[in-house]
Amino acid sequence: MTDPWVALEPGTDPAERVRMLRRAHERFTEAGTVERPVRSVVAESWRRSARAGVGPDGTASVELMDGELGAYRAEHPLARVMPVIRELVGTFAADGEHLLAVCDAQGRLLWVEGHPATRRRADRMNFVPGARWAENAVGTNAPGTAVAVDRPVQVFAAEHFIRRVQPWTCAAAPVHDPRTGRVLGAVDITGGDGLAHPHSLGFVQAVARAAESQLALFTPPETPADVLELTALGRDEAHLTAGGRKVRLSRRHSEIAVLLARHPEGLTGDELLCALYEDGTVTPVTLRAELARLRRLLGPGVLGSRPYRLMVPVESDVAVVERRLETGAVTSAAAAYGGPLLPGSQAPAVVRLRHRLADGLRTALIARRDPDLLAEWAHAPWGEDDLDVWRALAAIRPTAAVRTRWEELESELAAPPGWPRPVARPAHR
Q: Is-contact 165 138, C-beta < 8 A?
């Protein structure tokens, strides 16, 4: 192979290549060794799939359904460029009896469209909207591998790790946020062996670039000038944005902004004192000085007094997570959770809110019993000592690494008094 990213070079006999790949796949699943003619990108993907505990007879699980899927899609950045993606790929997919699929950065399929008969066949392997096709969930496949390696990739027939997917061939390319470079998801074309042609890889890459160009034409979603955006999850100093102007708040100002956002009706000076300070000796003069500095920072007409309140509506990341939890959109809530609320804050009201939000989300994750969502929490800094989550993960995905960590935490919990012990809740740092 002169280009390891192309599945079949011109002149290659597809039937013969399929036979060779099937033998190589069986060899790998039995002995763990990779033989020719497996491409390096596929061999590395097979190894990652095996390390993730994916079995060759597995299947994709559907994570997002009905209302949750609709809400998640509506909020996803790629929803804005679906018209241009459909315009470029729709006719090609329908005429060639292929499918157009678009996934998010976690490999979840958000849209699957195309030829009706092909869709019915794909339904039988859960290649449907809402299903998780991440490489660490279903092994080597074009959309999942494209977001895993951040490269356009073709996956031909028996290069797929899961056997039930091996009759298919697909090509996918990642789509990036043109401002940050972050992977937003991938555009995929799935169908027959004809997609192994080098042109299909170039085509899907061109579609992804067109989507990025379209995204670049959009200005960032504007928050109306009279609405504040507050970002406080996973950071000690919150960001407050209004009309495109971003202000980084000090820790104390961050605490005040979070509390006032929670109480649009306002808080008295005494209520703020109790919410912010453990030490009852802090005087109202100290608080008034902080509020005066915050008022100057925010500008006129934003911070009112008697009671203290924000004079314009506020949209916070805390409220986003809470709303999604209230509606049962657990996956979307987990995606919006950037970490513990102001993790360095010791303000009593902030500490209570931090624990309430994190505990509500982790309880929902445990009840949901989704191994990927649990693993994301367990491997995050705030979940590494979370015994309950590790126990739930071990019950669903009992890999050696997961069981070892769970048993370590169980042993520490049973240690004699005075020994370091894990907490049964996330560490809110």
A: yes
Residue 420 resides in a domain:
no
Residue 428 has pLDDT above 60, yes or no: no
For residues 3 and 21, the answer to whether their CB atoms sit within 8 Å is no
What is the Cα Rg of the chain in Å? 25
Burial status of residue 87 (CB atoms within 10 A of its CB: 0-12, 13-18, 19 or more): exposed
Q: Which residues are 310's β-sheet partners?
A: 303
Report d(CA 99, CA 110) in Å as an integer: 13
Token pair 């993606």 is found at: 85
DSSP state of 78: G
Residue pair 14/193 in contact (Cβ under 8 Å)? The answer is: yes
Exposure of 39 in the CB half-sphere (CA atoms within 13 A): 23
Closest to 320 measured CA to CA, from 72, 84, 152: 72
Q: Mean pLDDT for the chain?
A: 87
Per the CB < 8 A criterion, the answer to whether 195 and 171 are in contact is yes
Which tokens sit at 189? 């074309």
Given 316, 349, 367, the domain boundary residue is: 316
Query: Hey, how many other C-beta atoms are within 10 angstroms of the C-beta on 328?
Result: 13
The rounded distance, in Å, linking the Cα atoms of 401 and 224 is 48
In this structure, is residue 7 part of a structural domain? Answer: no
Asked if residues 145 and 122 have their Cβ atoms less than 8 Å apart, the reply is: no
3-state secondary structure of 151: coil
Angle (CA) 117-122-125 rounded to 5° is 150
- How many domains is the chain partitioned into structurally? 3
**Residue 89: both structure tokens together:** 């790929």
> Does residue 121 share a domain with residue 201?
yes
Q: 240 burial class (0-12, 13-18, 19+ CB within 10 angstroms)? A: buried
Residues 381 and 286 in one domain: no
| % the chain with pLDDT above 90 | 51
